[in-house]
Structure prediction request, 109 residues.
Amino acid sequence: MKSKPVIVEGKPYDGPALARKLGIVPWPIVRMRLNRGWMPEDAFRVPVRRSCDPVPDDAYKAAFHDSERIRHEAAAQHHRERRDAALRRIDEAEGKQVRRVAMAQQQAE
Prediction:
């Protein structure tokens, strides 16, 4: 099945053939980029960043790990607050039950 022409710099090209000719980005990646709204020129020319490529610089890496740590701490704090609130509700419910039992005993006497 032949794909529809891709317009690059105002000229129609066969997408898979152009991807092979340029050799920078494989056609499936180009097609995905085009579907996501990339400009055709960028879709063919921006190299693919592989997951095994090194992180650009240590500051970025440190900032990423800091943001992850902050996110985990915030989630942990949220869970602690929810747990404490649930325990308070249980304590209040038990306190009311104890008072009800005491009142029932007093009325029975």
